[in-house]
Amino acid sequence: MRHNIVPTERNADKVKLDHKTNSIVKIHTIDLKFQGLSDNIAAFLVETSSGPVLVETGPHSTLPNLQAGIEAAGFNIEDVKHVFITHIHLDHAGAAWWFAQQGATVYVHPRGSKHLASPERLMESARRIYQDQMDALWGQMNPIDASLIREVAHGEEITFGDTTVIAHHTPGHAVHHIAWQIDDVIFTGDVAGVRINKGIIIPPCPPPDIHIGDWENSIQLLKQLSPSTLYLTHFGPVPYSEAHLDDLQQRLHMWANWIKPHYKAERSIMEVTPEFQQMVAEDMIAKGIGEDERNKYEAANPSWMSVAGLFRYWKKQEQQ
């Protein structure tokens, strides 16, 4: 198998056909059914002439559902030898170590690789938050041998047979975030927001890396690439439109500006969280989103995490 990694500055191709084979890239969206909910966390299996490539693994706790989805696509889970993660948060990369144990290479941002090799701090932080729910929600995250971690620079290309994957560093949600492009589709992780069943587009804002300016720059990059489709980890493919990204950016500013006066008033995160949750719920209700769908949004992007993340953002802005 060829692993060609070369810098590129080209934008997304406007044709979805693979130019070497004149065949349409086949992408399987796998619903991981996190917490028993559909349309919540997705992984994506991409068929190439050199075997299947996986984008996102989801948490280790949903590995059985991922395996079932891979088998439904006609492959065995052991067939996956290349795993691309958008960033190292547990809902995106929590099962990456398992694939590495089977010999798979894991592709990641250079600033995220150390957390895959030594996930102790990441897991300790998560355990402080989730406490006795930690194992049920996320499962394990074991170290990955450094020889199986491939750090990928902005603009690099990785080719598997007839398919080329292009890395776009897209900070804002996380400093170690990559959106992965194949032909004219982009797997956006969290940088293009969360959208459940054609609902509103919301910005996941967990601590510690939220940066509004960086996120705006990443949104502009996506606009410049102008793909045909955005593959959202939360949840699934959506046709590309500037309106999608404009709505995301507008709500990102709305949330940040809603939080700012509460931070300035030195209110506690615990005190502000239920008010923020109510604001988010009212926004969704006004857009016709029912309770079941709101619960899916909350599972994919817990409101309390955005309060903590935006408090931290304003604190860092104040310190500059």
Please provide a written account of the structure.
- This protein has a single domain (4-250), classed as Ribonuclease Z/Hydroxyacylglutathione hydrolase-like (Metallo-beta-lactamase, Chain A, 4-Layer Sandwich), CATH 3.60.15.10.
- The chain is α/β, with parallel strands linked by helices and 320 residues long.
- The strands form two sheets. It has a seven-stranded mixed β-sheet with strand order 1-8-9-10-11-12-13, with no helix packed on it.
- Helix content is 38%, strand content 18%.
- The relative contact order is 0.13.
- Mean pLDDT is 89; it is low at 1-23.
- The longest helix has 23 residues, at 242-264.
Structural class: alpha/beta
How much of the sequence is in beta strands? Answer: 15-25%
CATH superfamily (homologous) name: Ribonuclease Z/Hydroxyacylglutathione hydrolase-like
Give the strand order of the largest sheet, numbering strands 1, 2, ... along the chain.
Answer: 1-8-9-10-11-12-13
**Quick one: overall form?**
globular
The run of helices and strands is EEEEHEHHEHHHEEEEEHEEHHHH
Extract low-pLDDT stretches.
1-23
Oligomer state equals: single chain
CATH topology name, in short, is: Metallo-beta-lactamase, Chain A
Distance between the termini: 48 Å
Task: Give the tally of structural domains.
Answer: 1
Helix content: 25-40%
Report the major sheet: 7 strands, mixed
